[in-house]
Amino acid sequence: MRAIVLSEPGPVENLEFRELPLPVPGPGQVRIRVRAFGINRSELHLRLGYAEGARFPIVPGIEAVGVVDEAPGSDLEPGQQVVAMMGGMGRSFDGGYAEFTVVPREQVIPFRSELPWAMLGSVPETLQTAYGSLTAGLDLRAGQTLLIRGGTSALGYATAALAKSLGATVLATTRQPGRLAELAAHGVDHPILDDGAVAVRVRELVRDGVDAALELVGTPTLPDTLAATRVHGTVCFAGMLSNQWTVPDFYPIAYLPTGVRLTSYSGDAGSLPPAVLQDALDRIAAGTLSLGPVDVRSFEDIRGVHRDVEENRVSGKVVVVVG
Prior knowledge:
Elements: E1 2-6, E2 15-19, E3 29-38, H1 41-48, E4 63-70, E5 81-85, E6 100-104, E7 108-110, H2 117-120, H3 124-137, E8 145-149, H4 154-166, E9 169-174, H5 180-185, E10 190-193, H6 198-205, E11 210-215, H7 222-227, E12 229-237, H8 252-255, E13 261-264, H9 274-286, E14 294-298, H10 302-310, E15 317-321
Parallel strand pairs: 8-9, 8-11, 9-10, 11-12, 12-13, 14-15
Antiparallel strand pairs: 1-2, 3-4, 3-6, 3-15, 4-5, 5-7
Helix pairs in contact: 3-4
């Protein structure tokens, strides 16, 4: 099979095209014929050497969509449409950047859809993180206000869509003036240009601060995001677009505003109920839900894809179609 292998952390040239033996599924495993996979920031972190416990060389990719090729002793049937994600994919064992991948059954979610594979590939990990951030991370309710820091990321668009469906008022930021219209077109109530002082603008719109905030940029903007949130409001840290995720010399009393709660979210396949996945796919097919722009690329363009992600030239989700 064809696969993309990261030989070791470093430049995009370390992503190499190789012919590998077809992986053989063992007990409790599923071999999937990959039809598409989404590109995630964590794969950039892997290539840059920021992924703890990763082995090299490795086939990257924390998610993939395709069909069951072989699943010995499983409840899954060959040809069945499935999502695979997380659980060590692309870290401790080979992931989705390949024509076939073998994953544990517990990391696989079956579904049914007539959507194109490129669209299907944009959904799994983004939906899982957006859904989990809003539910487990923020416990967002109808009528509340939500600030999304990093709104034109794939996760930002998806979270905005789900929050609007829930009945929340959404504020979302971008550092690029030309993308404010994109946020508005996607249903964001208050697009905000991120000039480093977002809290001031937020409190002009919501005097006491927002009820909830999703931090997707990272630790450089986290203090400003906390300052934009009301007393007894919650900030959920779920992304690191800045590639910075630690706070040097963290002193909680000085760092955290009084009464503002800080939490985080990180999930896996088990965190996305199959019914939630199927409902989202059905609504996308019906035209009643959009998780944001999808940038479709070819398997052969993987180095260009990584360059664009690293240099923040992407708005929305990049999906690689295999074959």
